[in-house]
Amino acid sequence: MKVLFGQMALIFALTLSLTSAAVAEEKGKIGDFIRVKKSKAGGQVAQLSVRTYKRAKNAKAPSTGMPGMSGQKFKYPEVVMISIVHFAEAKYYKSINKVLADCDLVLYEAMGYDYVKPANLNKMGARDLLFQGKGLKKRKTWQLADLSLDSQQRALGLPKGTMSRQMGQMDRVIQMMGEQRFRNQMMTQFKSMQGIEHLMNMKFILMQRNSVAFGKLIESIYKGKAKKIAILYGGAHMPNLEDRLREELNYVPVKTKWLNAIHDKKDAPVAKPPVKNKKAKLY
Fold this sequence. Notes:
Layout: H1 2-16, H2 20-23, E1 34-38, E2 44-55, E3 78-84, E4 87-89, H3 90-101, E5 105-108, E6 129-131, H4 132-135, E7 142-144, H5 149-156, H6 162-167, H7 171-177, H8 179-192, H9 202-223, E8 228-234, H10 238-249, E9 251-263
Parallel strand pairs: 3-8, 5-7, 5-8
Antiparallel strand pairs: 1-2, 2-3, 2-9, 4-6
Helix pairs in contact: 7-8
């Protein structure tokens, strides 16, 4: 039982993708992708951004490093960086599905989409919690842009097949912990950006995965078919990916939209604004 909970705890931490050690040296700010705000009900809500980038108008053609291609002109697509969290509320995933449906290409991370069946979000309450693999609908426009789960688990020293088997059981984490305790744990992770910084190889894996994702983006730009590309990755990956977008491709952010991912309490009543007492006029 201890081994099971230990493995589940590790995967739980991996799916959050919120480690201060992994993002501490980046120029990009984690606060542009993940934040905790006060909710309308007076509690707290964790939010993640959908951040849109376009090629700077005065940008010079980047060096391709390939003979004969230095003068080639490319059609630079719009890039949407979606900071995904791997457990969230149904309403959040509905919003993400709408964004992804409008993209010609979705470069996604290997965290469960290929191992579980999507849930019927129409039958779920807006604040019901579920795993991302069940909340997001994979389409033909999706392309894996990540190390395989087997590669990741070998780097972490996990037995073969551990991560792929447990991806399909991730909703059990909520059941084992209890929903309220799980929400509290998630909120703590959002606020502290810590949890697995003691694993020295985590930043190395993060940078490897980012290199795969960025390479797929470059490849799609060379092909020139997609006009709008989404990068669907955990929030801790985004500062480094944004740095590379800025420095290597001269992209700049043009729009940021924040989505409510998880509240500290489910179905908390929306607080009504206080009624102002009108003072009687003195004559």
